[in-house]
Automatic annotation (TrEMBL):
Subcellular location field: Cell inner membrane
InterPro entries given in the database record: GspK (IPR005628), GspK_central_sf (IPR038072), T2SSK_SAM-like_1st (IPR049031), T2SSK_SAM-like_2nd (IPR049179)
Annotated Gene Ontology cellular component terms: plasma membrane
Coiled-coil residues: none
Name of the molecule in the record: Type II secretion system protein K
Length: 325
């Protein structure tokens, strides 16, 4: 009887061991499967990032080859995207003209005496004109311009209608002002006064370039939607309807130079700002390149802002990820 009981215990022990080993084998198989899946996905994702880097470098080389041909009023570069297949996926490349915007960093100017940036009053006036042109009030535009300048400048002295570092540090979630040029237009949401309702109508007309210089408008690529930018550059010398009329009546051949634009009949006799010619150009100084790579790992999107202001195309901004709503 005892021997039979021992046999039963031994059998039960063996069955438990077999069951345990089976469970461990299933768990290890699942772990290995997941590990192999992650490795494959990581490899495919790395391939996508390498594709982004390679395509960007190739596109820069292409822009160098094109040279001044890009500056045609209707450049083939901006007409339709290019689809390129490669091993393991496809890439879609599209170019857009992005010279026409107001550089928010133009609201300050470098001061050697102050050791940083100080408010640029003339640029503040143009920003106020832009706010008014998109439906806001000029007074509100002046206040917003002052707040941007104070967010960027090096001192802790707020203007009459703005706030500085001390005010931001007193908030429920405290933070400090940038005290340097903005890297993205989205940073405006951190500045007092830029609520969602204020930011959204303006965002499409703004850019944040790595310089405190004015962003020149390309008179050959202005669209009716860009009329507020032209109105802001001309100040009180031009109405919104006048700006839209000038853009609408541009010939397909465009203008040979800025002088030809300023001498057209629609601008004759107007008291234009003396420095308006310095705010205009016939060249595409800034180009936005969007690359979308589709691989087994999914979709990768990169947007690169390319500057041609100094002749050679260079990437001054790069964003990876989907566009936020």
């Amino acid at each position: 009887m005892r021997r039979e009981k021992q046999k039963g215990v031994a059998l039960l022990t063996v069955l438990l061991l077999v069951a345990t080993i089976a469970v461990l084998a299933v768990a290890m198989t699942e772990i290995m499967t997941r590990s192999l899946g992650r490795a494959a996905a990581g490899e495919a994702r790395d391939q996508g990032f390498w594709a982004l880097a390679g395509l960007e470098a190739a596109a820069i080389g292409y822009l160098e080859e094109q040279g001044e041909a890009i500056d045609q009023p209707v450049s083939p570069l901006f007409q339709q995207p290019v689809v390129l297949p490669f091993e393991g996926g496809t890439a879609t490349i599209s170019f857009s003209e992005r010279s026409n915007c107001f550089n928010v960093n133009d609201l300050v100017a470098r001061s050697e005496d102050e050791g940083g940036y100080v408010t640029d009053q003339a640029a503040g006036g143009r920003f106020a004109d832009l706010v008014e042109a998109v439906g806001g009030s000029r007074n509100a535009g002046q206040q917003l311009a002052a707040r941007i300048a104070d967010f960027i400048d090096a001192d802790d002295d707020p203007n009459a209608s703005s706030q500085d570092d001390y005010d931001y540090r007193r908030r429920e979630v405290p933070y400090r002002t940038a005290s340097t040029l903005l890297a993205s237009v989205s940073e405006l949401r951190a500045i007092s006064g830029f609520s969602r309702d204020v930011y959204r109508p303006l965002a499409g007309y703004l850019c944040a370039l790595p310089t405190d210089e004015v962003q020149m408008l390309n008179v050959n690529t202005l669209t009716p939607e860009d009329a507020p930018l032209l109105k802001a550059a001309a100040g009180d010398a031009l109405t919104m309807s006048g700006a839209m009329q000038i853009i609408a009546q541009r010939s397909p051949a465009g203008y040979d130079d800025v002088s030809a634009f300023l001498e057209q009949p629609l601008l004759a006799g107007r008291d234009l700002p003396s420095d308006m010619s310095t705010m205009l150009t016939t060249k595409s100084n800034h180009i936005e390149m969007e690359i979308v790579v589709q691989t087994a790992a999914g979709r990768l999107r990169q947007v690169s802002r390319i500057s041609r202001a100094d002749g050679e195309p260079i990437v001054i901004e790069r964003r990876i990820g989907e566009r936020l709503p």
